[in-house]
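Hey, I'm writing a tutorial for new members on how sequence and structure tokens pair up, and I'd like a real worked example in the thread rather than a made-up one. If someone can provide the structure for the chain below, I'll link this post from the tutorial.
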Amino acid sequence: MSCSIDGTVRLWDVAGPCLNVVQLSSAFLYSLCLLPGGLAVSGEGGNLYVLKEGKLDQGIQIPALSVWCCESLPDADILVGGSDGVARIFSAHVERAAPLADREQMREQLAAQKHSKQTVGDLDLSKLKGPEALNERGTEGQTLMINRAGTVEVYQYSGGDWQNLGVVQDAYDKDKHELDGKKYDFVINVDVEEGAPPLKLGCNKEDDPWNVAQEFINKHSLPQAYLEQIAEYIRKNTGIDNKVMNYDPNFSDPFTGGGRYVPPSSEPGQVQSPALGQTRHFPAHRVLTENVPDAAKLIKKITEHNTSVNENTRLSSEEMSHFEKIATKTSEGQELDKADMDLVAKLLSWEKTLLFPCIDLARSINKTSPAFFELTDKFNIAVTNYKTDSTSCVRVALRLLVDITCQHTQYCVEHFVDLVAPAMDCLNTTDKKFVCMSLYKILFNMTCVDTDQVTSRYLLDSVSKLLEYIQRELTEKDKIETMQFNLLVATGNLLTRHPQLKEFVNRSLVEKFSAAKFSHKIRITAGEILAISS
């Protein structure tokens, strides 16, 4: 079963063909769930529909702009989530009804909502007949719309009686987009973390991009250094370029150093240096992460590889069933036990050419149950496997290493030589882009904590080496801007904590990022580094 923004509910064959279509509404439908003998569907307009035998059985109005989701509970009750931020449960059993005061409050909310609404689409509610019109006799096939407390219902006369065909929905405003219960001229996706789902940002034509960006940063607890990048992204993707009136150049905003940050105009190739002690992008303290592996893909890949491994490490059918439970428990964040640990250990003993999905399983377990592995075990799994000739093992081992630097940053700093030197050697593999995508996160994360001067010097050299390598070996199509920016910020992190390292900064390399071909945030960050290292 599926529902769609075209207002239809569809029944599909598992092989692909559509078996049946029910046109339930003219508005968007967002979610559905199966019920005993039927299903529930939620959508735009605050409507919850209950269908039985492929036909509308009941419509339930909710005091919200939209009903985003619905779910069937074990007792056949329906749980719904509305755009007003309220979860409600509806039941067919009277004994489970909410207290009278709660029901009265919902009736009042519905009444207030309907009172403020005088039209549905192009229909004037005041000109429609009420439910009493259903007492009149009609002609076979005649249709009739009635106003029932602000809801327009459609009936057809058939077999000597009026049959309810459904509810007329308000036309969806295609010039507006809804987010969190509010309407916006624009709703855009903002990628703030590689591998993670994008965050949605809403704004209107009259909004100031920098104000919207600041509210977005506050809402999602993002680094303040993202302000300019997000504001520029809003301008680029919406065409909004509103100016703030009555701007006071003497006002100092603690976030941006001005009343509102506006990108400075500069000649191509020139970067404006920050004022003494002021930097926009560093020091940064939020570590960079990797996404959680997909449990279904892990099960599929390990099942495939199980037929090819040595017989003494191959999983039996009982062990395969146990493994699938482990993968499910991991994806749901459930705690694992000793028997689970023993089976995972067996998987990690597979030969290198087939091992990579098992390392990804260990990474998934580490994400959801970080106490499952001893720290030294996690460390050894990562280091051992990124030293292999298997490209796939190197990939997932480096991902695990990124996770470890997020959870145990100080430990990784203390074992810097054992960790980073062999990891940097991975640059000699053929999978250059992917290795760089993990290495820049590893190095960045290690600059987010305090380090001694000697380790910081080695870190600075490694950051410079990777930055230079990316410039030389990768191209723009490899999406290197994020890597370049974060490595520059990592350099700034180290210089902020250890100003005496400025004599070891590769200034000729950093100066290259002052060129006009680079983004504004990269040019600004490069200028900041050059200023504090001079």
